[in-house]
Write a structure and sequence with these properties.
CATH topology: Rossmann fold
CATH class: Alpha Beta
Shape: globular
CATH architecture: 3-Layer(aba) Sandwich
Radius of gyration: 17 Å
Strand content: 15-25%
Number of helices: 8
Bound molecules: guanosine-5'-monophosphate
Distance between the termini: 38 Å
Order of helices and strands: HEHEEEHEEHEHEHHEHE
């Protein structure tokens, strides 16, 4: 069996980042429904409280700080980060990733830029995609429309967003989210193209 066939059988790791409010969750949900690849979302663990539309085990594995800490101590995380510096932790469970990859799935990690850098240390072959809002005021408008954040949380999210946008150039692919449909189509196409390249051999592609 060739190296390419082996890596196809083993599945692929896809990291999707982008600032809070850019529409990652909606895009990823639609991508999973529409793209004809064996995609699977890695469900992260978090200590942040669930929002009204969050579903436990689907959007996140919600857990107490104690449970999260005990999993950290057991080395169950591939990466974990206190994303907004407000005491809420987010992390990727190793088991979510390895089980899927071994079953030949393309595992999507929807994680922040710090977590992404940590994952790349272990999985340098991962495909990386950054979803860009276009500009910060567009992001603010989307966050306001979502209506889930307090003024303090909104300010913090926009501050972190600036840092995230500055890191976009570290990603192999940057896609500006003009409409969800366009973005989903672009990401799916990019993933389909990457099937024909050996791992880590992705071409730079910026979709506007
Ligand atoms: P939210 O609270 O809006 O669901 O997510 C906040 C941010 O946390 C998002 O930008 C998301 O990408 C990031 N995030 C979600 N899960 C993880 C994870 O497992 N690890 C890391 N590093 N970031 C995550």
């Amino acid at each position: 069996m060739s190296k390419t066939e082996q890596s196809r059988d083993r599945g692929k790791l896809v990291i999707i980042s982008g600032p809070s409010g850019v529409g990652k969750s909606t895009i990823v949900k639609q991508l999973l429904e529409q793209c004809e690849l064996p995609l699977e979302l890695s469900v992260s663990a978090t200590t942040r409280p669930p929002r009204s539309d969050d579903r436990a085990g689907v959007n996140y594995h919600f857990m107490t700080a104690e449970e999260f800490q005990s999993r950290v101590a057991n080395e169950e995380f591939l990466e974990y980060v206190e994303v907004f510096g407000h005491g809420y932790w987010y992390g990727t469970l190793k088991e979510q990733v390895s089980t899927g990859l071994n079953r030949g799935k393309w595992i999507i990690l929807e994680i922040d830029i710090v977590g992404a850098a940590k994952v790349l240390e272990v999985h340098p072959e991962a495909l990386t995609i950054f979803i860009h809002p276009g500009n910060l005021s567009e992001l603010q408008r989307r966050l306001e429309k979502r209506g889930t954040e307090t003024p303090e949380s909104m300010a913090r999210r926009l501050e972190v967003a600036q840092q995230e946008l500055a890191a976009a150039s570290n990603y192999q692919n940057i896609i500006t989210n003009k409409t969800v449909d366009q973005t989903v189509t672009s990401i799916c196409q990019l993933l389909l193209n990457s099937r024909n390249h050996p791992s880590g051999d992705n071409t730079e592609c910026t979709t506007n």
